[in-house]
């Protein structure tokens, strides 16, 4: 029963692979790992030595190449495309990152894949954030156009992504004491190793257990950006605060004062509208239940911030 991970050398894919093998949830020779680069293939070498098959495919390849990459797989874990620039300037349906996903999914359909596991994101659906648009479109596609089984996993916001939310904070040399953001509320930050473990357990379980389900994988302990500011202040020994400003002011600040690309800033800034609606404080016990099965507890956000500032 071969299982494929699309994007196995990326941070989430690799964490899933590691958990699958370290915990003995599957045997390596049942795994097909796709990667888009030779650096990725290098990273997968250990798994390959244990018997996993590595296949090269990237989002620019045609559907035929994707069919070859997914040939013979029963289950496919699809990690979303990271080509965020495709989403900029309000890309219409079928032109954003979902286009990458649709191609892989059409290929999976053509070669008879039975079960798709899709790594979505832990915002509401529908969301006010543009970050979620490609995920919403892909979730809808799975519900309407996929005839096999599917599982939608809305992945908690990565522990290590806090600088992005925290006013594009520049860890090594950000001297700001006041960081403008366009909205704040609690976020259920989740560490990548914890996500790797929980996704691996879901992926390795009998297909029926998760068929046609949607869940969140998020820590129940949530922290606002204001809370993160307090963590940074403590670690740096100086006061760092967030200042909530209107979205337009936020966009102007990051484009004009910090020299960031406008299409990116505009795409990103609506995430703060989602925060104002409290979209990222997630109440779903799934992550903690799954980690509990392996006698693990989620890692705490304070530790993450400390590790990254160190
Ligand atoms: C499902 O597929 C049809 C035909 O390709 C397409 O028109 C429709 O938009 C798809 N649905 C979704 C939700 O993408
Ligand atoms: C945060 O994420 C990084 C990158 O995956 C990981 O190495 C680290 O252990 C995580 N830290 C905590 C405290 O969860």
Task: Describe it.
Helix 11 packs antiparallel against helix 12. It contains 15 helices and nine strands. The protein is globular and about 55 Å long. The strands form two sheets. It has a seven-stranded parallel β-sheet, with helices on both faces. A two-stranded parallel ribbon has the order 7-9. The protein has a domain of 193 residues: Rossmann fold. With 310 residues, the protein is α/β, with parallel strands linked by helices. The site of one 2-acetamido-2-deoxy-beta-D-glucopyranose has 4 residues, from helix 6.
How does the helix and strand content classify structurally?
Answer: alpha/beta
> Helical percent range?
40-55%
Number of helices: 15
Ligands, deduplicated: 2-acetamido-2-deoxy-beta-D-glucopyranose
Largest sheet: 7 strands, parallel
CATH superfamily annotation of one domain: NAD(P)-binding Rossmann-like Domain
CATH architecture of one domain: 3-Layer(aba) Sandwich
Protein traits:
310 residues; alpha/beta; Rossmann fold; seven-stranded parallel beta sheet; 15 helices; 9 strands; 43% helix; 15% strand; binds 2-acetamido-2-deoxy-beta-D-glucopyranose; NmrA-like; NAD(P)-bd_dom_sf; NmrA-type_oxidoreductase; NmrA-like domain-containing protein
A few lines on this structure:
By secondary structure, this protein is of the alpha/beta class.
Question: Could you give the topology of this structure?
Answer:
Blueprint (H helix, E strand, L loop, with lengths): L2 E4 L4 H12 L8 E5 L2 H6 L1 H5 L3 E4 L6 H8 L4 E5 L18 H13 L4 E7 L11 H13 L3 E7 L6 H4 L12 E4 L10 H13 L2 H4 L2 E5 L7 H12 L4 E4 L2 H11 L4 H8 L1 H6 L9 H8 L7 H9 L1
Parallel strand pairs: 1-2, 1-4, 2-3, 4-5, 5-6, 6-8, 7-9
Helix pairs in contact: 1-8, 4-5, 5-6, 8-14, 10-15, 11-12
The structure holds 2-acetamido-2-deoxy-beta-D-glucopyranose (NAG) (2 copies).
């Amino acid at each position: 029963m071969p299982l494929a991970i699309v994007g196995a050398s990326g941070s989430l894919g690799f964490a899933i692979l590691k958990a699958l093998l370290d915990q003995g949830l599957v045997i390596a020779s049942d795994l097909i790992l796709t990667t888009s680069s030779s650096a990725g293939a290098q990273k997968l070498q250990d798994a390959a030595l244990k018997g996993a098959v590595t296949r090269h495919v990237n989002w620019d390849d045609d559907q035929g190449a994707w069919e070859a990459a997914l040939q013979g797989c029963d289950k496919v874990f699809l990690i979303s495309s990271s080509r965020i620039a495709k989403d900029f300037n309000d890309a219409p349906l079928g032109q954003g990152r979902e286009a990458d996903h649709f191609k892989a999914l059409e290929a999976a359909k053509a070669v008879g894949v039975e079960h798709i596991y899709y790594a979505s994101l832990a915002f509401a659906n529908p969301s006010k954030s543009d970050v979620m648009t490609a995920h919403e479109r892909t979730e809808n596609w799975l519900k309407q156009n996929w005839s096999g089984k599917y599982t939608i996993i809305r992945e908690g916001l990565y522990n290590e992504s806090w600088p992005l939310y925290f006013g594009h904070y520049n860890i090594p040399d950000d001297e700001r004491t006041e960081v403008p953001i366009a909205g704040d509320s609690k976020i259920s930050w989740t560490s990548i190793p914890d996500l790797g473990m929980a996704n691996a357990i879901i992926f390795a379980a009998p297909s029926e257990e998760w068929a046609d389900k949607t869940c969140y994988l998020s820590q129940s302990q949530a922290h606002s950006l204001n809370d993160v500011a307090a963590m940074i202040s403590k670690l740096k020994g100086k006061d760092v605060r967030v200042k909530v400003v209107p979205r337009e002011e936020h966009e102007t600040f990051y484009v004009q004062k910090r020299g960031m690309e406008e299409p990116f800033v505009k795409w990103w800034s609506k995430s703060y509208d989602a925060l104002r609606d409290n979209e990222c404080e997630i109440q779903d016990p799934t992550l903690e239940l799954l980690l509990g099965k392996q006698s693990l507890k989620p890692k705490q956000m304070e530790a993450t911030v400390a590790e990254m500032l160190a």
